[in-house]
Request: fold
Amino acid sequence: MVTAASPIRLAAPNRYARDHATGLRPVAPTPPPAEKTMSHRVTERILRTLSSLTLVATPLLATCLRPSPVGAEDWPTYQHDNARSAISDEDLAGPLHEVWVRRSRHRPRSAWDEPAIWDGWAKISGLKNRQVFDKAFQVAAVGDAVFFGSSLDDKVYCVDAKTGKTRWTYFTEGPVRLAPSIANGRVYVGSDDGCIYCLDAASGRLIWKQRPVDRDRRVPGNGRMISVWAIRTGVVVIDGMAYCCAGVIPSETVYVCSFDAQTGSPHWKTAMRDYPAEGYLLASATRLYVTTGRNRPLVFDRATGKRLTQAVGGTGGTYALLTGDTLLFGPNKTGAVEAFDAAKKDHLASFAGDHMIVTRNISYLQTDKELSALDRNAYVSAFVARHQATEARQELVKQFKKLKNPSRERTEAIKTRLGQLSQQIRRQTEALGHCLQWKVPCSRSLALIQCGHTLVAGGKGGVAAFDTDRGRRVWQADLPGNIYGLAWANGRLYVSSDTGAIHCLAAGKLAVSSIRSRGLDRANHLGRASARGGNGRGR
Reply:
């Protein structure tokens, strides 16, 4: 049941308040569908035939999702697109007010706990959590529908974007840890049960299901029985193909896989035994990028599945984004984003921060305490020049130490060259400082997206919005928990926290609808999954 509550008021910086919804009760179950008539069956047969003829017509024929308004923009996958750019061209005109909130009875069951306090071997303290892909229920939003998966009850959800009410759910046989991808009227999602699913976006009907590894072996994992080849990369859909990775235990072999997005037919499968596959996949025009948990990402050829290289720089993590074929990844052990040119296999730059937004000329960098704007091209140029001068200086020092009884002239020449390189390093270090366009305090450090000319940062206790021109904070909202997920689509901001809540914010002062998830307890859920075979719709 949905109950009305007082609206959350979002005011100017440092002045905001909110009221909590009360008297929450479970949502009433949806009545069973009516028996299909002969006309329904004929219509379905026609739709199946038409959908097999053309992929372009599928969204119009196979779904009832209402199209986005003119000027609005969808958010069809995690971080908006397969490059994980986290950029929408749709402007956000704040302040926003909470329209509805879905609350879970339990927190998401993430696969990995927080990291150790310090690395004694490397003598590094304040370690970053490098595996944060499932701390919240990340959403995808298309038209008037919002989609997300649950690590609690193993379901895929479709809810109404205006009200937050459930439209349909689909049971898998394991936790669904990553956001679905929506393409051509279909929902693509992976599960810890070792399968990827293709569902009809309008009804939740199963279109096809594939298990990348033929064997169905289960092992205890995160307090559950999961597949040895769990899908913890999400599913990338591009150019008629669907990509995923199966497996998180290298000794049991991990597979990078490609399927026909329309039929589910396997295309290629590449085995690897040296790294796990965890965190969202990324794709460019020709390459597939695989995040590998706490390690550096791997690069594969999209057409053949051939492994091309591994990213260079830093220690890695599950955060990554693409600009062309330049991969940025992190946050490493200490909070840094590395830039790697996949075509040249070269480490381009290192940025001290946790997340980035990359545009043509400006990059926005989010750290634990600040938000800043950098001249991207100038920064990379100065960084490369300084790096080359530093390497040249180190090599020259190494050569000088190997010399036995060098002449005075030789010694003076080396000293002169070392001085020149030191000056060059200082000049490029100063140039890096000049690349800064603006920098402002920002304690929201866990998520960052761009909505037109506005940056939205999420973190402990809420979200804050900043204009891209000067970094001026334009509004903020106090929300419970740690905000790990942000999505902006069709005039609505979706905010996901580690409490299990999903908040929908929009312009206008509206009453808040609060929906409490039924939150099946574990014993009942496992019994139902077993009885249903884990394959079907349910509430």
Q: What stands out?
A: The first strand starts at residue 3 and ends at 5. Residues 1-64, 519-535 have pLDDT under 50 and may be disordered. Residues 75-315+482-537 form a domain with the Methanol Dehydrogenase; Chain A fold (CATH 2.140.10.10).
